[in-house]
Amino acid sequence: MLLGGPGALIFKKLTSRIPIVTITADPVRLGIAESLARPGGNFTGASIDAGPSIHGKRIALLREIFPSISKLGLLALHIQYSGLVKGSPIPAAAQEAGLPIAVSLLDVGAQENDWRAAVESLSGEGANAVMVVDSPETFQNSPLIAKLLTDARLPAIFAFTESVEAGGLMAYSFDLVELYKRAANNIDAIFRGAKAGDIPFYQVTKFDLSINLKTARQLGLSVPPALAASADKVIE
């Protein structure tokens, strides 16, 4: 099983026979499925891309906490840039919100100094708030990324609730545990003889808002009471 589009793109080049279950962005746009209902090929799993509106929603939520946002930084992987960032609706969502963007890219396996340099690059380009693009790397490095962004005084929105638990300001996220359960069911079906290409991709439709009030205080931000009340998870 793979978490994230970058791994799926790598394995797409390596094999067309081994069944692969993945949690990824739009699998059709990535070229690993013909459609969500009938993927074909050797991939199945879950799509965490709910369409262009999800990026606009994240920007709007970030703006509610930080109305002074003037330039949005995107923190992502190099391997994502051609497919998930440059070829995705994120820049369009930022443009619709009236925000220029700065993009800072890292390689798979990036170390602490690489993440530090990436955050410094965003600050240097004038970004005063950040969207952390979902990937296995940003998930695994959540505590480090959250600390670097907070130290740099950059309000940020993440794609994982776990990132907020690790100190990130806020996230508008899918339920990763639920997706793992669905992936496990897919793997079980494959072991029982089903073909990956015949198992529909699950499309995420429910997203949860989580906010870390401690981080907000560290950043000198006041969370609107209505926003805090609407959050699915609030960390004091």
UniProtKB/TrEMBL annotation:
Pfam families: ABC_sub_bind. It comes from the Bacteria. This is ABC transporter substrate-binding protein. It comes from Bradyrhizobium barranii subsp. barranii.
